[in-house]
Amino acid sequence: MKIGVVAASAVAVAMSSSAMAADTAKTLDEVVVTATRTKMKVDDAPASVSVITEKAMEGRNVRQVSDALKDLAGVNVRDVGAGTPSAWANQVIIRGIPGYYRTAVMVDGQPINNAFSAGVNWSMVDPEAVERIEVVRGPFSSLYGGNAMGGAVNIITKAPLEREIVAKVGYGSNDTKSGHVAYGDRLSERFALRLDGGYKESDGHLKELVVREPSTGAGAAVSGLVATQTPEGNPAYIVGEKGPRKWWQKNAGGTATFDVTDFSVLTLGARYHQHETDFDAYTTYLTDTLGNPLVSGNVDVGGGQRLRLSENVFLFGANGEDALRYTAAYEHEFRPGLSMKLDAAYADNNYWYTSAGSTATASGGTGKLVDVPNSKLSLNAMVNFTPIDRHNLVAGISYVGDELNKREYDLANWRNRGTMTNLRYLSDSENRTYAAYLQDEFKARPDLTFYLGARYDYWTTEGVVQQIVAPAFRTEYDSREKSALSPKASIVYVPREGTTLRASAGKAFRAPTLSDMYSTWVASNGVVNQSNPDLDPETTTSFEIGGSQALGAATVVSGTVFHNTLEDLIYQRRLPNGDSTKENAGEAVIKGVEVEVRHRFTAAVTAFANYTYVSTEIKENAAEPASVGKRITYVPDHSASAGVDVLAGPWKGSLVGRYVGKLYSDSQNRDVVDGVFDSYEPYFTLDAKVRYRFTERFSASLAATNLLDAEYYQGGIAPGRTVFAEVVAEF
User: So what's the architecture of 3-730 in CATH?
Assistant: First the structure.
């Protein structure tokens, strides 16, 4: 598909001059705050914005907050955990900007990308605690700093206006259980409180197969080998399964709001999250000539080739996290046209994982514990004022401090974290970012608004890395610094009610994470992934043009064309010995188009359909020249969603189909074989949910994910059809 043709179509849709009724579709009247840090209607925002409300989430099967984003144009949610809680399980990518760490994610305007890898644990906030989610596409470093290269997601939590008591319990496939309770009330004229807590657990689904490639040599005769291929087309054999990944999680949180005066509000919050995952017992497909299960030794596969096996390749360790987050915000309106907001957040994340040693067995043996405590302190002060007629300014300063204290220990028993013995490796490091930002909203005419903004970031980093085991070393990296200016300019033209045209150009940056610079790690296959303390920040320069058009009172069509150029892309370079290291080696171009239509058939039935095309290409890569001209990894070229929502009396339901195209995990795009383990093949799934409200206080729902039971691979085996039933009591 030629992107120029699609782009022209999108702009034509956005600029449609169809006759309109005076009453436009409700979508255009949604109020957002993320696009400019000030309140405005969606159709006035200088960016492509989507708003997902609490009511919309009730009609979908939203297990984690990120599930609510799956059907948005320009947004790809790579669910590698199938509901498993983790900072790496659900990876949200906006407009093809690769890597979950290049999307800024906030809760109530405060960043939650962790200090270690900029990952986001979407399970930390239960969907039941969310009032709405705002998704803003495009670079927003001019307001939010690093990570906002592809866009920004702001999760806005509930604030009680009156007493509410909610209790939910649910049960579903894979022995999945959940429970959630919440209490909220305005206890006095000036004080409101909300408390919530939840628990979930699941036996998980079978995702990981044990696949081995043959080498030259002789081995013992066995039965049970399953011939297959690697995604690159090399011969391989499936010899077993690692077992389903079991998990559980606990959440608890609270928010207190004080109306200090009629013009000032103080909000305090705290949230706790804990989870743990582990693999169930493995299964070997192999038996020897006597019928005994086989998990180790040399195995004959014919043709003078063999497989080398050891039991540890069937094993996968546990992982978990304890996280505690405190927040505070103070807002004050001095007079109409002059207000300020001060906010602070401190997050303490303690992530850990274990791995089995080379001689380990299912019953025990040596292993390794990696403990990754990290913390983030975020401070922000902002003023919103109108200095002269038609100008609205947002000015602010911010500070973000990240700290990492990683430790690796030997385990006498890899199945027991309490059997730590020797300290093997440590990494103590920190990032500090100081910033100032300014944005001017200039209302040139009632139908024409200009936005001009910039943010200056000053970034420093330092760290210590020490290996205690042979070969022992200790390296102290002196403090170094970088700075970045991230400007952005936008134009919004509203020639008539229901028609919005917008164009933007901007620049964004991402500082390397503490994981990138100071956290060398060893993969389960023995490959050493080296960090690089000399990495520089990445940058992207972006342009977009698009708009939305209301067609009467019931229909809205929208489209956007975008172009991104990434420079100093942090890339993983393969070393001659098979290990890898990170370098600023790449330049890439990402361009694409989003189109969407939403229509209300009746007061009870609404529908939507959207399509996204993303073209990605590596333009320069000294670290791996063979990747030049190839697509960026883990970014699908085509994706589309369509669905219908119904609200009729006590019934509420939805049916949504989703298509995601081919993506590559190999930087040279050699993984062309689909339908095999470790491949990322195109897929289509259909999800459904129906809810019935028995009374004002009681309701029940039944949801099905992958209703058609599609079988496909996304690295591992994707979940088949799952169902989940839930009952809700509200008082």
Answer: Beta Barrel (2.40)
